[in-house]
Design goal:
Elements lengths: L4 H10 L1 H27 L2 H9 L6 E4 L20 H12 L3 E10 L10 E10 L7 E10 L13 H23 L6 E6 L12 H21 L2 E6 L6 H10 L9 H5 L13 E4 L14 E6 L8 E6 H5 L3 H14 L5 H10 L3 H17 L8 H9 L1
């Protein structure tokens, strides 16, 4: 039965004061952080260095390029175009002959519809050479997880997490394989859809947390070893590295409701503008990153006119070799082609996604194979009924 709007409205009215108090506190705290950010970006280089040197412990973030390269904390982008045709001319100038590559994944989780625990993981990738004559590749790789893989029978084992781990491992390994195959290629850019910093895994058990760290370490090390450019693109981010830096430098109150993208948005970035490059200095998860613990750079890039800026993470070797401006132009070009989101990531997602008909096909093949092998696999009556109706 659908919800009743009148009841929702009545409930909201009853709790209006709680929302109003939360909003007032959030606005007050945000203003304090905005003031601190404005002070930080307008300091002299000498004053900023003195302030940072007086706080040597991990701050959350630390500038990697002079903030003086920016005006009021903003590094200008390529400017504005009068129409789509002009922007595409700029893209062709930047991306022609540049190969971009992205990978994404999808999965079918085990469920009660099958008498034997089984899952399917599929990754898909998209390689685009950006040549006038065309030239691209889409392909997939899949894996079936057995009851042994899913640790069936282990009471309390989070089965869906094991599927997610397998997908993540396949995605990151595909990136590593690609970098090894294109070692030294300076006209190549790989996209990771998500962060290089495994903060999402902090609440997991130590062995699970380390699994995700090891996967990302493999990607970081391969990029640095083979000198293949890598960008982690986070469209909607709640990272608080800059917020943490300002809290330490200016002795501000903790503000869990404030995140970097929201704060940076107050700098009035136009499309294509970015912040200076910073080094990520998170005090928790990065302690597990060995020699890469202080080798992840980031910036905030305005990729749409209306939303908060996206977070872009890079291996620091790219900044050390002064290649970040060129590579960020490649990112801008991909965003233009994708109308607000990198085209390579978008296409990899479409390649990898498992649709309803894929799920039905998987179970049908699984049932046929189980019959041939004389395995005792049974589909639930509910699943059979659904398959017939479709």
């Amino acid at each position: 039965m659908p919800i009743k709007p009148s009841q929702v409205f009545q409930c909201l009215e009853q709790k209006r004061d709680a929302f109003a108090q939360f909003d007032k506190r959030a606005v007050r705290l945000l203003q304090q952080y905005k003031t601190a950010l404005k002070d930080f970006v307008t300091l002299s280089d000498e004053g900023r260095s003195h302030l940072l040197d007086s706080h040597p412990q991990p701050l959350g973030a630390r500038p990697l390029e002079p903030v003086a390269v920016a005006e009021q904390g903003v590094v200008p982008g390529p400017g504005q175009w009068n129409n789509r045709e002009e922007s595409m001319d700029w893209v062709r100038d930047r991306l022609t002959g540049i190969t971009t590559f992205a990978v994404d994944g999808s999965q079918i989780y085990p469920g009660k519809d099958l008498s034997i625990p089984v899952a399917l993981v599929q990754i898909g990738w998209f390689e685009n050479q950006h040549l006038p004559t065309g030239g691209y590749e889409k392909d997939i790789q899949l894996d079936v997880l057995t009851p042994h893989d899913l640790k069936a029978g282990h009471s309390g084992e989070p089965v869906d997490r094991l599927v997610n781990m397998r997908r993540f491992g396949m995605e990151t390994q595909r990136l590593v394989d690609y970098m090894e195959a294109h070692s030294g290629d300076e006209r190549c850019l790989l996209f990771l859809d998500g962060s290089l910093v495994a903060t999402f895994a902090r609440s997991f058990e130590p062995e699970v947390r380390q699994f995700y760290v090891d996967c990302l370490l493999g990607v970081l090390r391969a990029s640095e070893q083979h000198r293949v450019a890598l960008v982690a693109y986070i469209d909607t981010t709640y990272a608080d590295d800059l917020t943490g830096m300002l809290r330490s430098l200016y002795d501000l109150p903790t503000a869990n409701t404030i995140h970097d993208a929201q704060l940076v948005n107050s700098l009035k970035l136009a499309w294509g503008d970015r912040t200076p490059m910073f080094r990520c200095e998170r005090a928790d998860i990065l302690q597990n990153y060995a020699e890469q613990s202080d080798r992840i750079a980031f910036t905030y890039l305005k990729t749409t006119r209306d939303n908060y800026p996206a977070r872009i993470e890079l291996p620091q070797w790219i900044v050390d070799e002064n290649r970040h401006n060129e590579i960020l132009d490649w990112v801008r070009g991909e965003v233009i082609i994708g109308s607000g989101y990198p085209y390579a990531i978008e296409t990899a997602d479409q390649t990898a996604v498992l649709k309803v008909e894929d799920r039905a096909l998987f179970f049908r093949v699984l049932q046929d194979w189980a019959n041939q092998q004389e395995l005792n696999l049974r589909l639930s009556r509910k699943m059979v009924s659904k398959a017939r109706r479709r």
